[in-house]
Amino acid sequence: MTIIERLQQYKDLEAHKIALIVDEEQYTYGQLYDAILSMESKNISKIIDLGQFNDGSKNKVLLIQRSSFVEQLVQWLWGLNKGYISMVCHNEMDGAYIDELARIISFEGVPKSADFGVLTSGTTGRPKPLWRSESSWREFFDTQNNIFHINKDTNIFLHGSFSFTGVSNMVIGVLWSGGTVITTSSLRPNRWIQLIETYHVDHIYALPTKLRLLVRHCKRKLDSINYIIAGSQVLDRQLMKQLELICPNMEFILYYGASELNYITYCTGKEWLDREGTVGRPFPTVKIAEQNGVIYVTTKYHIEGIPDTYTVNDCGYIDSDGYLMFNGRRGDVINKGGYKISIPEMELYLQSLQGISEVAIITINDDIRGEDFVAYVVLEDNAELSKIIERIHHERSSVEWPKTMLQIPMLPLTECSKVDKRKLKEWYNKG
Fold first, then answer.
1. Range of the domain at 344
2. Is 123 contained in some domain?
3. Model confidence over 168-202: pLDDT tens digits?
4. 141 within 8 A of 176, measured Cβ to Cβ
5. Total structural domains in the chain?
6. Which among 34, 33, 23, 37 is positioned nearest to 69, based on CA atoms?
7. What pLDDT is attached to residue 416?
8. Could you please report the per-residue DSSP string of 60-76?
9. Which of 111, 132, 153 is the last residue of a domain?
10. What are the DSSP E strand ranges found in 10-141?
11. Torsion over CA of 368, 371, 372 and 378, rounded to 10 degrees?
């Protein structure tokens, strides 16, 4: 059964069941399916006609340029239904880059087996197009939904653009199960809390950056939350303890994945606390191996054009119990006069310090040592940066001291909920 056929089934059987809530607007499964069928081609964004494949089938890419979550979702599903290869552009991509992306796609072409495209997050450079078959998601939905405890009764809150692979996969996975997705365009955590309480949300899907915003602004318990699903960015014990206080009934589920490879490993919060630094054990049918400190993943649920065993150059090792211990991406290291400093390890250390709420490290050029680093921090109330710096100088050798630490009220985030380090570098260079 295809994704569209699944939605049609829900429309036929439970047309009045709520599929999507965006702020004050509610959309039933019947309304969502009808919106897909009734959409007209004149409302779509940009089509790249790549001619025909050898067998005469259409080869058209639909570049979706909409900021509205509902429009992004409906156009993506419409393209899937019509046989277009849909790709949602990040809102932060300007017109010049979208034109450049169209030229790249026209030049490189699209694999015949592709049903839609996804974009990398672009945190380290320009977003790149990747191509997927529908089955690479669809055939894994039951597996991931079982791990994440997602079913027809699920009310999940998430925040972010549908262009982010993690969000789009989760949204379609929840709709596949017949559950309800709740979201908002608002960046205000108080609005998130209001929606969570109003609609009795039982799941939250978010990266740690968003969870830190939530705990900073939440002054009461969210008793309805049963599960928090989080991607494997920098996680720390303090955040876990804060989440346990405001969501006393929740089970924490941490996952590690990649746009190229889908979900790879997962663990519970308890497992993470027992093995700090782990990203868990493999999902069913997924295999992992380590070679020279680099993680290799074997799965059939990957993008088109790569082998079943592949690496995205993430580093780590597998412990004696089969848990993957994650060390970051290869090259995520500062070479400070020959002394190697791991950025993920240093961020984790700084994040653990009392008084630091959020942290991000950027690499800078240094005339003497070649490379150095700057730490941007968001401090908790009443924390003093000078005392934190004093503690770092006491606990770490001088070669590991940041060149400078800069206090800011909030870390800039990309639409993919990741720290926008390109913007931090711009701020530093302008300063």
1. 333-430
2. yes
3. 999 999 999 999 999 999 989 999 999 999 999 99
4. yes
5. 2
6. 23
7. 67
8. EEEEE----HHHHHHHH
9. 132
10. 18-22, 25-28, 46-52, 58-64, 85-88, 116-119, 129-132
11. 150
